[in-house]
Specification:
Length: 428
């Protein structure tokens, strides 16, 4: 992990992976196959990409029951505790419909309604993520979504992660389908004989999942186009380099393209963290992945002071930001761009991944400049409410006519003018 004496945005070799044209064409072809052949395409593509020859796509009750037997009871207890925290946090995000009534009887307002049906994509492959089930399903449930389904890639043996099934079961989700990749996104967007089309698709995935979500956007909603995970640890000289290194590696182990960055005004801490990252890498089960991440994407940036460090934070706009300084709240007001902010030496990033309550589906690759974590808001839609009284119509009608005439829209003018004429006739 290199130490750099100054921050240059060009040095930070991370960008939104838009994929190659070959990958995009492959995704377009997969989507077309699913649209044309439905379940049969899913069976064929699952065997091709996952090595699993399935007899059915939906997880059975027996498979759910077996999953509970395979997962340690203490893990189940921890999942239950995490569910409680995550649900409580998201309940604070709930919105209510509202209306205001003018003195003349005109009513204006906004109606809040949940989406009807949502599909949660839970990644598989190199690891199993029951936490992704909790983070995508719970805010949808809090929002009031009536139907939630999960798709997740199976193993070569045709099995779904026991932890994923237990997490789904604890949340009362019994519709889990053994399909991953771009084909899962296509199935959720267009529907097949077995998998229903949904109003929105949420959840992270690899580049093929991201490209597929981009292709189907407009047919269905999506949460975001997520890239590899990233973390920035802002630390002063008083921090423990063991903890800083461990937190950096907690994200580096996700993906060789994950980005782990430390920003500090202390050269002594920077050198200690650099050594500690090397030491801890030797003991990580996923050392090859984490090493590729810190060597290619990672860096330790030295700044003049904490003020400059905050400027670096706002330029990078990290997915995860750990503020490990003596007085973290003193810097909080200056931080403009970050997906999730962890304050203090004990607020380690994995607390947010699993347990604290805020959502871990976060804007990556600097998109925290303009987007937010997954929330209850992602699972609702708003309808404007307009009810004009006759008095209000007479008062505002001429304003509308003037504006419509200025834009050259005669039918708009007539829709108002005819009513005003009728009102005048009644007054006579």
């Amino acid at each position: 992990m290199k130490i750099l004496d100054r921050f240059d945005k060009q040095d930070l070799r991370r960008s939104i992976d838009t994929g190659t044209e070959e990958q995009r064409q492959a995704v377009v072809d997969i989507i077309q196959q699913v649209r044309e052949a439905g379940d049969q395409a899913l069976f064929r593509l699952t065997e091709k990409f996952d090595g699993a020859r399935l007899s059915q796509l939906e997880v059975t009750r027996q498979e759910f029951e077996q999953a509970y037997r395979e997962v340690d009871q203490q893990v189940i207890d921890s999942l239950r505790a995490a569910i409680e925290n995550i649900r409580r946090f998201h309940e604070h995000q709930q919105r209510s419909s509202w209306m205001i009534t003018e003195e003349d009887g005109t009513v204006l307002g906004q109606l809040i309604r949940p989406l009807d049906r949502v599909g949660a994509y839970v990644p598989g492959g190199t690891a199993a993520y029951p936490s992704s089930v909790l983070m995508t399903v719970i805010p949808a449930q809090v929002a009031g979504v009536e139907e939630i389904v999960i798709t997740t890639p199976p193993s070569a043996e045709g099995k779904v992660s026991a932890g994923v099934l237990v997490a789904a079961g604890l949340l009362g989700i019994d519709k889990v389908y053994k399909v991953g990749g771009a084909q899962a996104i296509a199935a959720l967007a267009y529907g097949t004989e077995t998998i229903p089309a949904v109003d929105k698709i949420v959840g992270p995935g690899n580049i093929y999942v991201a490209l597929a979500k981009r292709e189907v956007f407009g047919i269905t909603g999506i949460d975001m186009l997520a890239g590899p995970s990233d973390i920035l640890v802002l630390a002063d000289e008083e921090q423990d380099p063991v903890h800083v290194a461990a937190d950096l590696l907690s994200q580096a182990e996700h993906d060789p393209l994950a980005c782990a960055v430390c920003v500090t005004p202390s050269r002594r801490l920077a050198e200690a963290v650099q050594k500690e990252v090397i030491r801890q890498l030797d003991t990580l089960p996923r050392a090859d992945i984490a090493r590729a991440s810190v060597e290619k994407q990672g860096a330790i940036y030295l700044t003049r002071d904490l003020e400059e460090a905050v400027e670096v934070v706002n330029t990078i706009a990290p997915e995860h930001l750990q503020v490990m300084v003596k007085e973290p709240y003193a810097l909080l007001g200056k931080i403009k761009h970050a997906g999730a902010i962890f304050l203090g030496a004990y607020s380690s990033e994995p607390l947010g991944d699993y347990f604290a309550g805020p959502n871990h589906v976060l804007p990556t690759n600097g998109t925290a400049r303009f987007s937010s974590p997954l929330s209850v808001d992602d699972f609702i839609k708003k309808s404007s409410l307009i009810h004009y009284s006759a008095e209000g119509f007479r008062r505002d009608g001429q304003h509308v006519i003037r504006l419509a005439e200025y834009e050259g829209l005669a039918a708009h003018v007539r829709a108002i003018d005819y009513r005003l004429e009728r009102e005048e006739e009644r007054d006579v």
